[in-house]
Amino acid sequence: MVRITRRAALAAPLLALPVAARAQAWRPSGPVRIVVPAAAGGTTDIMGRLVAQFLQARWNGAPVVVENRTGAGGTIGTLEVVRSRPDGTTLLLGNIGPQAIGYSLFRNLPYRADQIVPIAGTIRGPNVLVVNPAVEARSVAELAAMLRARPGEIPYASTGVGQSTHLSPLLMLQMLHAQAIHVPHRGSAPAQLDILAGNVTFLIDNLTGIIGHIQAGRLRALAVTSAERHPLLPDVPAMRETMPELANYEVNTWFGLFGPAGLPPAAVASLNAEVMAMLALPETQQRFTELGGMPMPGDAEVFAAFVRAETAKWAEVVRKEGLLLDAG
């Protein structure tokens, strides 16, 4: 569990903060809840609790709580925020699934992109392909051979329909011309429990949320989804270098803070400045390094442009794959 104490949070020198952080006078009118559209224990949840603890300390102990609202690939939690009052007391710790992939993947998505305001990025990083240690495959090529020998029989877990952990393996399977059984879960923690128990063969999860199991030897990493190898796993190849069929494979995931449309610009600017102050803390940077991720600095406009670009990228991937699902 990520923990940033109030003492540590307040220890950052005032002059080290961005000008916007010192200039903004906006504060929430009451207790704040950060909706996490995923189960406890995964990266989305970790980021939500990290931001909540930091904001509570910065706001002199004003309550900031995390509420997990799981289901439907993150759309249930997102819809709850969309329907909330735009006063800054209800926020969303979103991710690549419901805030980018979902717009093109689901035919009946109950919200639109313009109903959510991007506030600040938090962390980004690759996914990683892992197998249970009992699985014989010790490389992507060996896993591919298993999949081709038993088409449509081998189960794999994801953290939810429409998440990057769903499309990442699906893209891999399409490139390999292989089939497998998708077993979706309501978040990273239950998906990890399933593969740790040996109920599924493989999982492509966020490196930030599963690195501990890899380092402890509880799971075997076969490849990372980024273009290059990751410094925390230097002996684990990038997916694109494992097989000729996967030469063009590349996926990265990300997480950030959002609010409902209509959120006052002063609130957006203040919240962005607070998150940027959190990212600047040595404690945060060290924790992100341990998780295998990188901070996402930038103002709200920079983050919004990034989200738009990601949405367009995944829309093309979904179109090429011919995917269209029902939300819920």
From TrEMBL:
A matching Pfam family: TctC
Q: Which InterPro entries match?
A: BUG (IPR005064), Bug_dom1 (IPR042100)
Give yes or no: UniProt keyword rRNA processing.
no
Which segment of the chain is annotated as a signal peptide?
1-23
Highest taxon, organism lineage: Bacteria
Keywords assigned by UniProt, alphabetized: Signal
For this protein, the record's CDD domains field holds: PBP2_Bug_TTT
Q: Which Gene3D superfamilies match?
A: Bordetella uptake gene, domain 1 (3.40.190.150), Periplasmic binding protein-like II (3.40.190.10)
- What SUPFAM superfamilies does the record point to? Periplasmic binding protein-like II (SSF53850)
Residue spans making up a coiled coil are: none
Give yes or no: UniProt keyword DNA-binding.
Answer: no
Q: Which PANTHER family match?
A: BLR1237 PROTEIN, TRICARBOXYLATE-BINDING PROTEIN
Family (UniProt): Belongs to the UPF0065 (bug) family.
Q: What is this protein called?
A: Tripartite tricarboxylate transporter substrate binding protein
The species is: Roseomonas alba
Taxonomy of origin reads: Bacteria, Pseudomonadati, Pseudomonadota, Alphaproteobacteria, Acetobacterales
